[in-house]
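Kinesin light chain
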Amino acid sequence: MNYDKALKIRIKALPPDHPDIANTYNNIGLVQRNKGEYDLALMNYDKALKIRIKALPPDHPHIAQTYNNIANVQDDKGEYDLALMNYDKALKIRIKALPPDHPDIADTYRNMGLVHEATRAWQSALEYHNKAAGIRRKS
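Predicted structure tokens:
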């Protein structure tokens, strides 16, 4: 309810492609995911992504965050191929934009490992978890 109020205010007060509007859509998506409202979450993440792609540089970490959030929902829905595709998009941006031992890179590797676990691709799961663990040890 409060994010909806904030969104209405921001839409009224800010240009349509302002990053704060994208942040609000992203936050609404987070709440919807936590409530199990996956399709609504994806809809709001998509709105956030469209704004972020317009408003931010192509390798901005917030774009990676949105791809990661979309992948989280797809993973929750059992849409593993789509989840891996979006985790990969997030990972490529994060590798370009962040230091090599950044925890967000480790999180993405971990998420990819969990998807491979869910699909019983054990060797791939182990490889991604090892990459995540290596970064975590350094950071």
